[in-house]
Each structure stands twice: as structure tokens, then as C-alpha cells.
Amino acid sequence: MIPLSWFLILAAALFCIGLYGVLARKNAIGILMGVELMLNAVNINLLAFWRYRTPAETAGPAFVVIVFAVAAAEVAVGLALIISAYRRRNTVIADEIDLLKG
Amino acid sequence: MTLLQLFFLFVSAVILGSAVMVVSTRKMLHAAFWLILALFGVAVIFVLLQASFFAVVQVVIYIGAIAILILFAVMLTRRVMADVGPQVIRAWWLAGIAAALLCAVLVWLLSSWNGFTASLPPLPQRGDPIAELGQALVSPNAFALPFEVASVLLLAALVGAIYIAWERKGK
Amino acid sequence: MSIATLIWLIPLPPLLAFGLIALFTHRSKGLSHTLGVGAALLSWLASMLVIWRAVRLPDLGQNPITSAVDWFPTANNWFKIGIQVDPLTVVTLFFVAWTIAMIFIYSVGYHNYGQPVGENDRPGLQPHGATVTDAHGHTHRVPSVEPLYSRFFAFLSLFAFGMYFLVVSDNLLSLYIGWEIMGLCSYLLIGFWYAKESARNAAIKAFITTRVGDMFMLLGIVYLYSVTGTLNYRALFADPQMLARLAQAPSYIPGLSVAGMSGLLLFIGTVGKSAQWPLHVWLPDAMEGPTPVSAMIHAATMVSAGVYLVVRIFPLVSAGWAESGAITPAMSVIGFIGAFTALFAATIALGQNDIKRVLAYSTISQLGYMIAALGVGAYAAAAFHLVTHAFFKALLFLGSGSVIHGMEHGVLHTGEHIDPQDMYNMGGLRKKMPVTFWTFLIGGLALSGFPLVTAGFWSKDAILTGAFQGGHWIAFTALALAALLTAFYTMRQIALTFLGEPRTQAAAHAVESRPSMVLPLVVLAFFAVTLGWLGIPREFPIIGGALPDFFENFLHGMAYAVPEIEAAGSLIPLFTSLVVALGGLYLGWLVYRRVAPGAADPLAAPLGVVYTVIRRKYYFDEAYDFLFVRPSRWLAETFTAAWMDRGVIDGALHAIARAFVWIGGALRRGFDIPVVNRGFESVGQGARLLGGELRQVQTGRVQQYMITALLVALVFGLLFYYFFVLA
User: Fold this and answer.
1) Closest chain C residue to A96 measured between Cα atoms?
2) Dihedral (C-alpha) C270, C272, C274, C279: value to the nearest 10 degrees?
3) Between these two residues, C403 and C640, which has the higher pLDDT value?
4) Which of B152, C381, C701, C707 is placed for a possible disulfide with C462 were both Cys, Cβ 3.0 to 4.6 Å?
5) Do C699 and A98 touch (CB under 8 A)?
6) What integer pLDDT is reported at residue C466 of this predicted model?
7) What does the angle CA B143 – CA B146 – CA B148 come to, to the nearest 5 degrees?
8) C692 CB neighbour count, 10 Å cutoff
9) What residue of C is the nearest CA neighbor of B97?
10) Do residue B157 and residue A12 have CB atoms under 8 angstroms apart?
11) How far apart are CA C380 and CA C95, in angstroms?
12) What is the pLDDT of residues C96-145, one digit of tens each?
């Protein structure tokens, strides 16, 4: 019997690793991969709560479906942006896109 | 420690290990592959949670589409990325601290919640869960609206992605 | 219209004329003189109507025509201003109206109305003549019109207003107002040709000298008011109880009663205004003004106002005379000054060569006569002489103006550079200017007191009789001597001017003056002859009593308290006046009938240094200059202007200013720049430095922003949790 806490701790850890990737990775695609990890952690959380708290409802799984769709859309658009930026500036290093520098 | 628990621990270790490799490896291609492994691990967790449908969806969509897309992008931008030098920014230690701190805070917050150590309730006796999910998604009393919005979002993402990545002729 | 209303209106036309000319018509010469002359004639008409009605009223002296209105509020009642017509007013109004009207008409011709404008004439200078070219191309110079023609009539009208106002008023305050208005106009008119320095100086001299007198007069008015609480004539001079009270109350000067002291103070005003010694110095210099001004101010009206005042206040100065029989101290002072001035001025007149100066000193002398008459108590004689003198002196002045015009014509014709007013440049003018000659002769004879047919004889005789009957031998002798000298210098004047042969080319080419100038001479000459017949005294041999002594009877209606004098019936005064008049005339004719051109005065050699002293007017002008004018100048220019004003006051102001400037500078250097400026600058610099440091936060790197955001959110969340959730 796996207590809920295990799932939650797993999801938290995965989330934070993904967060680290977002914050620390140089490569833009690496950042995107960190985002995917975070989204997966969210999914784990959602399903864990659904299974342990309200297994009779369909709200949990429905939300997960939406997250899947959003993740897909976001990856598509993100990669399109990266490729477009790469074409213009010949780089994918996030650090070098610092037009907002003050 | 039951077998199930051991299995869970093993899968968690795989997931977390490959996640760490994703965010720390130098070569992007390796990072993409490690990502695929992590996604597989998450699919297994979904099975453990008796959401088998989602395990399949995870494999098909995440690994089959998203990860492949990422691979494409990595390969398309390989020329400029010589994969040399450190792959993290200079303030990576600060990010690490922040992330660790967040994790600790989350865990600690959740631990003070009394449902934290709840055990598995039995599955309800019901019919086809997939069909129920499908009906919930299109039922106006349930989640039809988010469903429709998500589809619009997909459409917008589709159009937007094409538009952004469109290479102008003669430019 | 009631007679009182008519009296109120008498001073009005000249005032209106002044206002209208000054404001509206001064550009048009014709319009201005029409207004002036018209106003003078209107007032003359009103005066004649008033006189006509007033002489018919019985007991005019006891019941004069009065009317008053409230003027300004005093403590618990009103100070009233009004009119009063009694016998003295009637006779004064008579000569004032006639002389003013005649002088206005004369001024039209005197200022050459209708003549062309001179090419070198400037406003403020006497006209110098214009050059005209006739049909044949001959150019000759003719008299030119006065540039400031309208201004003259404006001032003259204002002056006329002042005199009329003074004459009809019923209290000392409005008399003083009219007095001062005339003083102002005198200044303005003496200095009429203001571009000439001597005229300006003469105007100031006249004003300041009369001001000295006026100051004391004001003191007298104030003193009288403070003692009695009124300035009304009837309340002061017609009330026996009031006079008795004033005569007994002691004043600040021991030996003088309130009546005496206030009377003397008021008299000092007359000393100034009527140019008595010692304030006589302004009148001869006042001849700088145009001749109508000299006639008006210094013969007919302004100086007469001084005598009018003394006659008016006669009850005050003579208070106590009737009871004690001896003349009061005030009367003695008045008498002394009058007699002294009469003799003193007559001697100076002997040595003057300017035709107008002789007349000026003659005026001073004759006024002394009148003042002396008042000093001995013969107020009716004084008033009589006042009236007759106004006519013949105005006649003489206007005649001299005509002579000067004739001489100027000659000067323009011949181009000689001589003084047209110097009698030694004249001569033989009786042939060239006959009407002027005969009228001037009549005036001169009247002045000398030629018996029977001239008014001056009757009035002068009245004065001498008054002095004799009062037993004042010194005054009588002085006045007789003065009469002798008067006749002498008058004949001298006539002989030098009209008799003999012309001494210069200009005199040979003189012409008679225009009708507008000659007509007033004739009119005045008529009065100079006939007016005396209104005052034939009863005691006069043969004809006395045939005609009543209208004048004396009329004026005695004033009912001034005089002691009873036995009518001595002595013929000594009459005899004396005959001798001095005829003798003086004959002597003058003898000495001066044949004076050659360029010759010196026949009196110069015999009199020697005395002649020089007389000519230099006893050096009074020089003495006053040394005693009063120079110290005043020093006080004004050096002490007040240089030392006090520039030195002390300006010095203090400059020191204060410098102190403030220094304080300002010190504040700037010590506080403003280091503290305020640097302080704010450092605030700005600090902000800039801080900004420079803080901008490094904006790296443009999104990941750094996110890390920061996450950390801050965590911190906030923990804090929130600690303080709100765990509380």
C-alpha cells in the first residue's frame, strides 16, 4: 500500500528538478525539457489526488487531459519560437537573447 | 515494505535519476533521450495509479509526439550548438538553492496536511471509466467548455507554430 | 432775482471763464478773450445792479445784505460761509468792477490781438515783432501777437474771481481764501513771461514775500477764532460787547489786548499784500509782468485788498479808542508803518528811470497814505482814497502800457536797441500819442492832488484833515512831505515822457495805441476827474455843503465807534495840500521840462550820494538777500539737501542696503551653495549612483528574473505563513 505522501513527494521532487532545469539551463531546448518535466509532475499529482481522494469523480482525469493538450501545444509553439529565433540570431542560448537588458 | 512499494521506489529512482540527467547532461541529444526515459517512468507511475488510459496517452503523445519534436528541434539546431562548455548559466547554484528550497517548502507544507498519509481507498464499482471520461469531456454539465477551449488552443498553437516557423521566401 | 442771489453770482462768471478757457478754448484767442471780457462785463453788470439796489436801502451799515450757508461742521455747530454787502463792500465793489472790466478790455489790445505771429516769438517770452511784406515788397516790422494769449485771460479771470470772492465774503476765512487765490494769480501773472529769468525771480519774490505776511495773517485768524469761536464780520466787528471783551482781554504780548494783537497780526498780512515797509520789496520787481497785470494787481485790486482788510477790521484795531480817546497801540503801529512807507517810497520814486517802477513806488507810497489814515482813525478818508486811487493808478498804469506800446512800435520801426520803458529814451510823446497824453496827465494830476478837478485832491485832503484833526503832527508832516514828493516825481515822469522833444528816434516814431487800449483810459480818466465830487467835505470853503458829502455819510453808516472830534474847521490841512500839490508840480516842471538826449538826471549831481542811495532803493534788496535769502539757500541746498538728505538719509539707506546685500551674499556663500545646492546635488548624485548600481539587476535574462521571483515568493510565503497563518 503506497501512501499518498510518496506520490506527492515524488511529484514535488520531479517538479523541482524540472524547475532547476528551467532556471539554470543555457540551451533553450533544455529549458523546454525542464518545462516538460514540470508538467509531468503536475500530472502525477493530479492523478494521485484523484485516486486517493475522489476516485468516483471524473474531474481529475479531465484535468489531466487538458494538461496533456496544453503541454503539446506549448511545446509546438515553443519549439517554433526557438527555431525562429535560431534562424535570426544564429543562437539558441537563452542568455544571449537579452534585448530587455537595462 | 511490500513488493509494490519496492517497485515504486525503483521506478521513482529511475524517473528522478533520468530527470537529473536531463537537466545536467552536456549533450542535448543525450538529454532528449534521458527525457524519454523519464517519460516512460511516469507512464509506469500512471499504471500504478490505476490510470492505465493515461499511461498509454503518455507514451503516445508525450514520447511519441513531444519528445520526437524535441529531438527534431535538437537536430535542427545542432550546427550552432557545439555542446561544448558548461550548459548551465552562471547563477546555476542560486537556481539550485531556489529549487531545493521550494521542494522542501512544498513537502513540509503538504506534510502538515492531515490527508498526507492517506491510504488507498477502494475503486468504486462502476462501468467503463474511459467512457465516463469521454462523456464528461463532452457533457455540457461537465467539462465541455474546457474541452472546447483546449481544442481552440490546439488550433491556435498549430496556426501560430506554422506562422512563426514559416521561412520567408527571398528574405 | 433777489439781491442776495445776485451777490452770490457776482464772482461766478470769471471763475467759469477761467475754467472754460483753461480746459476748452485756449487754442482760440478770439474765443478766450471773448469769454474773459464777457465774464468781466457780466460781473460788472451784476455789481452795478447790486450797488444800485444797495444804496437805496436805509441803514445799510446796520443792516447789511447777508446770506449764509453751512460750510463745514465744527464741534457742535456749522461754520458758515456767506455774503455780506454793507457800505464798505459797495464802494469796494464799485471800483473793483470798473477797473477789472477796463483792464480786461485793455488787455485785448495790449497783447496785440489781430496782429501776425512773430517769427522768433516763443511761448514764455515777450513778443518781439513780426516782419510783414506789403504789396510793394517793402518789409517792415510790426508788433506781434502774444503767443500765450489765452493763458493770460485765464489767469486774469481766476484773479478776478479771487477779488470778487474776497469782496463779497462775510467772514475772515473766505477772505483769506480769496486773498490766497490772488496771491497765486499774482505769481502766475508776474511770471507770465516765464522764459525770462528776471520774471521768474520776480514771481517767486512776490509770492514768498507776501507769504511771510500771510503767515502772520493766518496766525491772527487762528488766534481770533480760538478766542471768539467765530470769524464772521458781524459777529466780530458789529457787536459792541464782543469788541469790548476783546479790548479788555490781555494777550500774549504785555500791553496789547487780544483785539490789538489779533489786529496787528492781521495787519501784517496787509503789510505783505499792500507792499508796506518792510515787505515792500516785491512790488517794484513785479513790474516784470505785463502792464495790465501791473494795473490790475498792483493798482486796482490786490494791493487794495490789503487796505480793504484793515478798514474791515478797523473796529478790532481801534477797540478802546472811542472810550479812552487815545489811539490804541495797534493803531500807532499801523500809523507809523503807513506814514513811514509813504515817505520812504516817495523818495525812492525820485530816482527811478523806468516808467513802471516810478508808478510802482508811487503805489507803495499811496497805500502808505491809506494805512496812515487808518492809523490815525480816519477810516472814511482811507476808504475814499482807496477808491479814487484805484481809478487813477489803474489809469496811470494802463497809460504807461500805452506809452510802452507806442515806444515799441517806434523801436520796431527804427530798429534801435533801446529799452522802450526807460523815460530817458522818451520825450515829446504828447504830439505822437495825444489821447494817452491827456489821460495820463489827468491821472498824474489826480495822483498829485491837483485841486478841485481831480479826485485825488479830495481824497488826499480828507486824509490830511483826518491826521491834522487827530493831532498827529508827525504823521501830518510826513504825509505832507510825501505829497510834495509825489507831485514832484509825477511831474518829472510826465515831463520826461511827454513834454519836450523826443530824445530818441524810436520816440520820434511812436504812434497812438489802438482803440481797445485807449477807450479804457478815457473811461478811467472820467472817473479820476469826477469821483472826487462825491466826497466834498462840509467844511470846504465856498462849495462845501452845496453837495452833500455822499461818501462820508454813506461810509459812516458802518457805524464804527470813533471818539467825538470837534470839527476844528481849520484851513491848515487844505492849505498844506494846495501848497504841496501845486508846489511839487511846478518844481517838477521846472527841473525836468528840458532834458537833452543822453543827459544825466538833473538831480544826480546836487544830491550826490543820496541820489545813488535812492536809486538803489536804500539797498533793501541787497540787505534782504544777505539776511534772508542766502541763509535760506544755504539751509536748503547745503544743510538740508546735501547733508541731511543725501548724507544722512541716503547714507542710512545705502548702509542698510549694503548690509542687506552683505547678508544676502553671506547666506548665499555660507548656506545656499554648500548646504542647499550641494545637498540636493548629492541627493541627485546618490540617486544616480543607486540607479547605476540597481540597473545591473536588469540583465535582460529571463532566467535570472525567474530565479529572483521564485526566491522572493518563497520568502514572502514563509513570512506570510509565519505571521498570519500561525498566529
Assistant:
1) C701
2) 130
3) C403
4) C381
5) yes
6) 86
7) 105
8) 9
9) C711
10) no
11) 15
12) 999 999 999 999 989 988 888 888 888 888 888 888 888 888 887 888 88
